[in-house]
Amino acid sequence: MIITLLPLITLFISFFILMLGFGLIGILLPVRMGMEGMSTDTIGLVLSMYAVGMLMGGLYCRRLISRVGHIRIFSASAALSAIAILACSLTMNEWIWGAMRMLMGFCIACAFAVIDGWLSEASSDKTRGRILATSQVVVMAAIFCGQFLLNLAPPTSQTIFIVAGMLLCLALIPLIMSRRVGPVIHETHGMSFKQLLTLSPLGVVSCFFGGLLYSAMVNMLPVFAANYDISGFELTLYMASAILGAFLLQFPVGMLSDRFDRRTVLFYLLVVNIVATLIIPWGAQNQWLSIMMLTTAISTGIFTCLYPMSISETFDKVQRSDMAAAMGGLLSIYALGSIFGPLSSSIVMKHLGHDALFAFLVCSEVFLLIFVVYRMRVSAPLPIEDQENFVMQTSAGAPLLELDPRTHYYVDTPLNLEAQVAITIAESSPAAAVNMVKQIALTSPEKAAVLVSALSQVDDIDVARLFTAITRVAPDLSLEIAEALASNAPDHASELVAWMVEHQPEKLADIVAELANQFPAYKQEEFDQLRPADADAYHESATELVTHFAEFQPEQAMDVAAAVIETMPDMASEVVDILHDADNMENELSSGVGDKPQS
User: Where are the transmembrane segments (predicted)?
Assistant: First the structure.
């Protein structure tokens, strides 16, 4: 364990100091705004800007890192965050505070992306879990300790702001003094909201409410506490209990989530949390701080668990290759919830009183509870052994995406230089990448199949047109390239067949035969161990392929059908039905033509 973590000590020290500063800022700003007499809805608006910045940072951080590098982005993030908090000490203008809060959110998203990339690069399949767990402990410990720094000086003085700025600047030193080289950038694109909602409605809704509930709780809790004269050390102790609960409750909840139906676990968690949330204002009215701390820890802890549970719930429904994209989309949804949390709860508090914060939280929980019950009624539960594992997430909001063991895959052989260059070009100009491969196919035809395989993995590449472009300049490579596409882009096989039926029917027979030969080799030996989402996608791809062959190339349909049945015997009856339906349609068309009166 020590040998694994020792090379990463400078990263963890910088990360700890950075989050120590952000932990202090998180409690300082709402307390100071309350002391300045700002209205509750103004406080909520300013605090919600952090999530706006985090959302923008999540969208653009990797693009910035690829331009200037990891160390410069981390340095810029820490420096800009220091400037932002020091600027807040110079004025009490709520608009400037909102802008600075948004800048802080942007910077923390960039900083998390930098640390995530470095830790992921330094980890292996055996050490990834340990490094992830250590990073979570570092973040939560820093935020926990940061609460107590509020006691160094009165919140009305500039001293606390200066301390926070010093911490953010200090976070630079361990990292920039190291000899560490920035890792390779892995660009990821988030899955669309519509696609996520179609695949996992409960995952999307619980993710949104996870952001809404947690951000409303931790941002507006100091404002609520001030209404009951909870200040000084008592306030920091109270807020620290919330952070501690957010960390500790993930262990038992994660265990329950992995051992029982996740939706059932979520149902009972919400029921327990509704009770805990209702007790908090009752404890405040009776000045029972210990009761408040306990119930706040429980409530905040369960709110924190909603995000990792929503990720696991969504991962149950998506293909393994789409997990990183799904997590990127979920992060955006979580950030949207975090924007609305402080904003909407502060408006409720302004009009109905500070205790209405918990009425808002309970109403939101009840709505989520109703949706959980609805999903339990309309969809069957996934077998426990097929559920994705629960992986802890920090309460800071920005996840360590690349470090999550569920989204990382090890490639046995790295891409050659030409393939890497082609992919890089394709990300900005697919047409230019195809032209490059065409030229290489003319001079070095032995490299064509590898390059085509690499380009087929790029989202913006049209596989059918790629095949035609390359085989037009190198027609002798048709079968080799078809084999490469069948092995590396099986999801596009039906698309390729449909396009060739329309544009190049003369080559269809040979290509179909090659696809039929390659199809059963796709994860044949491990099909029984496929995740349900991957098996469903494979099943759909096979169905589409058989259907295309049966309709457009019936003489090859039996070869493809045999290949599919050999791979998935359970599909035998469905394949026979497809062939039977296609044969009936052909007979009906033939009889219809024969019955026409001769003119």
Answer: 7-31, 43-61, 73-92, 98-119, 131-150, 156-176, 196-215, 235-253, 265-284, 290-311, 323-344, 356-374
Take residue 119 and report the two structure tokens written for it.
């830790």
Are 229 and 365 contained in the same domain? yes
Concatenating the DSSP letter of every residue in 41-82 gives: HHHHHHHHHHHHHHHHHHHHHHHHHHHH-HHHHHHHHHHHHH
CB atoms within 10 A of CB 551: 17
SS3 381: coil
Angle in degrees, CA 243, 245, 251, rounded to 5: 120
Q: How many domains does the chain have?
A: 4
Q: What tens digit of pLDDT does each residue of 385-422 get?
A: 777 777 777 665 555 555 565 665 433 334 444 555 55
pLDDT of 483 above 90: no
Q: Which residues, 6 or more positions from 454, have their beta carbon under 8 angstroms from its beta carbon?
A: 415, 419, 420, 422, 423
Rounded to whole angstroms, the Cα distance separating 488 from 446 reads: 17
Range of the domain at 306: 198-404
Q: Is the pLDDT at 175 greater than 70, yes or no? A: yes
Contact 265, 257 (CB under 8 A): yes
Any domain includes 188: no
Torsion angle of C-alpha atoms 425, 431, 434, 439, degrees rounded to 10: -100
182 domain-assigned: no
Once rounded to an integer, what is the mean pLDDT over residues 364-369? 94
Q: What's the CA gap between 401 and 143, in Å, rounded?
A: 20
pTM: 0.73
Of residues 153 and 477, which shows the higher confidence score?
153
**Distances 68 to 71, 84, 187, 225, 426 between C-alpha atoms, Å:** 8, 22, 15, 43, 21
